[in-house]
Structure prediction request, 419 residues.
Amino acid sequence: MNAFSAIDMGEVTRLTRAGQLTEAMALLQGRPVAAKPQAATEQEPARTGARAARPWPTIDMVAPSTPGGAWTAPGFGKGATGAAPTEEKATSARPSLSETLRSLRERFPKMGSMPDLGEGLGSLRRAPVPVPDGARYEERSFSNDAGSRTYKVYVPSGYTGQALPVVVMLHGCTQSPDDFAAGTRMNELAEEQTFLVAYPGQPQSANMQKCWNWFNASDQQRERGEPSLIAGIAREVVREFSADPTRVYAAGLSAGGAAAAIMAATYPDVFAAVGVHSGLPCGAAKDMPSAFAAMNGAATVQPRGTRTSVPTIVFHGDADRTVNPVNGDRVIAQAMPEATSSKIVTQGESPGGMSYTRTIQSDDSGREVLEQWVLHGAGHAWSGGSTNGSYTDPRGPDASREMVRFFMAHASASGTTRH
Prediction:
């Protein structure tokens, strides 16, 4: 199976120019196509490394550098999956992805299956994250049998050793902890309301586009793969800072949102509530072809077979062309407890002029357990975020603040002590 970073774009362009648009689209999506010319196998040695067999779908796309330019796959033009970025000779001969996609769009107007972010998104942040006096923003590392991950932790200036809540923030593809912190402004809320924030980072060694591998079956299970690493980071923060083990939460965007849904399904004893922004439900895919199907809304999700439901808040734009909005509904359906006693639907408009529909479902005790925000006209971006980070839409309601409000209304019974 191929990912965007491993696709033979020369072959895609050749097929496009030859009018073989179906074959070109199949190649872009990692689906089997007719046998290619022998010359196309010259890249094969570059894909025989230890991690070459792992699929790497790209969920997010990179904004054009000029107005009206094409959206492109992040990192494309830096060599094949196993190749070093310095292999300029090999990549310079390839047509750019933007050139090929532009040609495909011109000749294949119904190309709705290719991810496209839309408009209004920022560029990847590289400036340092500001830290107020008395606060700390530090890097840590966590390791277990599944591997290791670095993470950033924000400690507000109001921390004096008390048992604080912990919010684990899971970035989207191509993003970093610093970029996600800047775009979501979660550190500002942590400083205002006094809680800890942890930002696990996905390295390129795990996924070339730094996506959390939500589409791998091995990364959807308790005490295995990435879920074990994320849960381990949450537990480590609780231990290091004597945080409140009953008030640990996870939130994420896109691939990070899908990872947050996985954490709710696999670690309901660790996470008291989760937030899923423009993500997908746990088990939506098991490989790259099913990942594309899920992103396009064609996949179905089976119930997890568990009676434990974690309170969940969902944000999703109804104009999202990267992750079909139906996935927001599916996250809610998967998180649905056995019974809810009431549903309240309201309409509203953010200060930035974005209209939305908000649905709240409560249990028999009147406790809010599910909250869904459908953002009308919004694409694939963090609602109400800052342009200092990537993939944000400042016009929308403040997703970070609403998630924190939702989180702080929930505490788990067991905390993070069980392994």
Summary: Residues 225-241 form the longest helix (17 residues). Confidence is low (pLDDT under 50) at residues 1-7, 36-123. The domain at 136-408 is CATH 3.40.50.1820 (Rossmann fold). DSSP finds eleven helices and twelve strands in the chain.
